[in-house]
Specification:
single chain, alpha/beta, FAD/NAD(P)-binding domain, D-Amino Acid Oxidase, Chain A, domain 2, 3 domains, ten-stranded mixed sheet, 15 helices, 31% helix, FAD/NAD-bd_sf, Flavin-dep_Halogenase_NPB, FAD binding, FAD-bd
């Protein structure tokens, strides 16, 4: 007769130790709850999403990461700059000029190092981290999540909890199980990237800038991100079909895109490639709800927007912080209903929608330079959006003047939860193709 699986109890189970999982677990531990975090991978592990934006400062400060970031070797980032399809560079958007506070300086991070720091910080705050440990399933009694079944060191056991947090990233464990995913009707991009040693680097205040370089055909863009190990992260983002349908290997497509983009080609001229080529399907999606009875989603497990403007880590941190407080409040009140645990999501979604609109406007031809020239009084508000100040209704003032620049025939941008056009999308999201050769 097979022995019953071992059963233990805790206050909260967190699935995944990325930025969202580390943040929510740290907030919960700081509020006096017992937290068990299960991460399937051993760290350090490779991840993309290297450029932070300034509003991450406030979450870092709350969870005890700020001093660690200040003492790190990560490149300091003070601005973002845009290069149009003709190679014309915008004036840099300096964050400090808009908000003269130390929060206006952020970092370019190597995610393997950064994610390890975040998870170690959670441990220091009292989170019980299990690694590597694979969550096999979330356990439900009726509609309520009551724990997880986990496999670690060859043993399978159940961990019962008052709340379960899905921070499983692009695995989207609960979103898949509960069939909650809503594809974005228009954002359907892919990316190919690699790392260069000896590529051009700005100096002084501009040394750590993220540069966004539009492709000559205006269908896509390159990111150009300096890293503290001497490499430059350079990737191209474009409609999925344009990158991956019938064009050959990732190396071939990447090199063709570089050849077509002089602003990138001259920056990496004479540089040596430091890694293989990476690629990902950046399907954009969001769950139709953030929480249910006994469960919450945060970070990429809840939704993925787009790499433009580097909002991913901020949204993971912010959702983790907000969900952590909602869970702690709910447990204290004896109410772990979906309504209580997801009370934060309405305002959060409004912030994501603001960033999404800025992303969609860029893909639809929006020019920062032309807009600021016509409306110089809105330069600071544009910068507010770029730094991640997304959760304040005051920034909505910008949309009317932006719409006044539309050319005749431009259509309204569909909302994220509109029904998508007839495209075939499987359930794989942001599938990462690792390169041959040495990983970073």
């Amino acid at each position: 007769m097979m022995a019953a699986a071992k059963v233990t109890e805790t206050d909260v189970v967190v699935i995944g130790g990325g930025p969202g999982g580390s943040t929510v677990s740290t907030v919960l531990a700081d509020r006096g709850l017992k937290v068990e975090l299960f991460e399937r991978d051993l760290y350090p592990r490779f991840h993309i999403g290297e450029s932070l934006i300034p509003e991450t400062y406030w979450v870092f400060k709350r969870i005890g990461m700020l001093d660690k970031m200040k003492k790190s070797a990560f490149v300091k980032k003070y601005s973002v700059q845009f290069v149009n399809s003709q190679g014309k560079e915008s004036a840099p958007f300096y964050f400090h000029d808009n908000k003269p506070h130390e929060c206006s300086q952020t970092w370019q991070v190597i995610r393997s190092d950064f994610d390890t720091m975040m998870l170690d910080n959670a441990r220091e705050h009292g989170v019980n981290v299990h690694q590597p440990a694979r969550v096999l399933e979330v356990l439900f009694e009726g509609e309520r999540a009551v724990g997880v079944k986990v496999q670690q060191d060859g043993e399978t056991r159940e961990v019962r909890a008052k709340a379960v947090v899905d921070a499983s990233g692009q695995s989207t464990m609960l979103q898949n199980r509960l069939k909650l995913r809503k594809w974005d009707p228009i954002l359907n991009k892919g990316a190919i990237w690699t790392y260069w040693r000896g590529a051009y680097r700005d100096t002084g205040r501009d040394e750590g800038a993220t540069v966004v370089i539009q492709t000559p055909d205006k269908k896509g863009w390159f990111w150009y991100i300096p890293q503290h190990d001497g490499t430059m992260s350079v990737g191209v983002v474009a409609p999925f079909d344009d990158l991956f349908k019938g064009r050959g290997s990732h190396e071939q497509v990447y090199n063709e895109e570089v050849e077509r983009c002089p602003a990138v080609k001259r920056r990496i001229e004479g540089a040596e490639r430091a890694t293989g080529y990476f690629a990902t399907k950046d399907y954009s999606y969001r769950s139709s709800k953030a929480a249910g009875d006994g469960w919450v989603m945060v970070g990429d497990a809840y939704g993925f927007l787009d790499p433009l403007y580097s909002s991913g880590v901020l949204l993971a941190l912010k959702s983790g912080e907000l969900a952590g407080d909602a869970i702690a409040d709910g447990i204290a009140a004896g109410d772990t209903s979906g309504e209580k645990l997801g009370a934060w999501s309405e305002n959060f979604n409004k912030g994501v929608d603001r960033m999404r609109r800025l992303v969609c406007e860029y893909y639809d031809g929006f020019s920062f330079g032309r807009f600021i020239k016509k409306f110089p009084q809105y330069r600071n508000m544009i910068t507010d959006l770029l730094i991640g100040d997304l959760f304040d209704d005051r920034v909505d003032e910008i949309w009317a003047p932006l719409e006044s620049t539309y050319v005749e025939g431009k259509h309204e941008i569909p909302k994220w939860n509109d029904e998508p056009p007839e495209v075939i999308r499987d359930n794989k999201v942001n599938e990462l193709f690792l390169p041959e050769g040495e990983l970073r």
